[in-house]
Known about the structure:
It contains 12 helices and 9 strands. It is of the alpha+beta class. The two termini are 71 Å apart.
Amino acid sequence: MIKQIDQYLEEIEQFQSNDLKEIDSFRIKFLGKKGILNQLFSEFKNVPNDQKKLYGQKINSLKQAANHKINQLKEQAENTLEEQGSGLDLTRPGYPVEIGSRHPISIVKNQIIEIFKRIGFNVSEGPEIEDDWHNFTALNLPEYHPARDMQDTFFLQQNPDWLLRTHTSSVQTRYMESHRPPIRTISPGRVYRNEDISARSHCIFHQVEGLYIDKGVSFADLKQTLLYFTKEMFGKSKIRLRPSYFPFTEPSAEVDIYWGLKTETDYRITKGTGWLEIMGAGMVDPNVLKNMDIDPDEYTGFAFGMGIERIAMLLYQIPDIRMFYENDMRFLKQFKPIV
Ligand code: PHE
């Protein structure tokens, strides 16, 4: 029997093939369920005790030799297959995997968030379907207040107390309900207004609003924060605040930056003045603080809000706001992801 095993060993050593099918039948012959090795193993019980050790060693080395040979031949056969007939040229460069690009609105939004995070603002978010209280009434805009006309609103037909938020100031009211000062938060998000769609305005757009409430916050803090922001965002450090009106801030201002008049586009977008309006801002109205159970004698604050589309249009020189929502690949592809 030992002799027989030696013969098998010899057979394994001699075996050569470059054909995967042939190699596989060789494998089945030796290592298959009914193969030679299993037969030899099943005979183990009939081997006289004094030969058991030697027999055991022999069939184990036979098994190893068979495994080794099969693996070696298989690898060899696969390699030659690749080299010859597969038609693959493995030296050619691979297909580039195209990385998608971020939407310009996201790029600008993230940039704004980054700038304010650096000075201690966190990010807060809220629902797009809002109730009257958070979007209007708590912000010093009671029902029938004429200033509601400033923001034409989509109301929900089933329940006119619900609406699509017209600004992310609604997130600020929610934030003030659940947090006590000091508050330093910015609220990015999508907002809705019932406006005609044109090259410059859309019924859906995006805002980032900011809110800062603490003891002793002054108008000078507001101005300094805006100056810091415009420097970081646009690299321009000349701003002016024009008196304006928002129900939730007093005093209120429109913020303009000096864009310059170097090119024809500068003339066009600034209407020949060099100045460009980029956001609304002001000191939080004491009535808003009261509505939120914050004592206006102890705390003051400022708020500001800007449209992301507007800023993206400026930075990327996009002539028509509708381009943001058309999902035209040729448009979207131009915006490289910022790492
Ligand atoms: N909520 C205002 C708007 O949507 C912007 C704003 C925010 C103005 C905060 C002043 C203070 O137009």
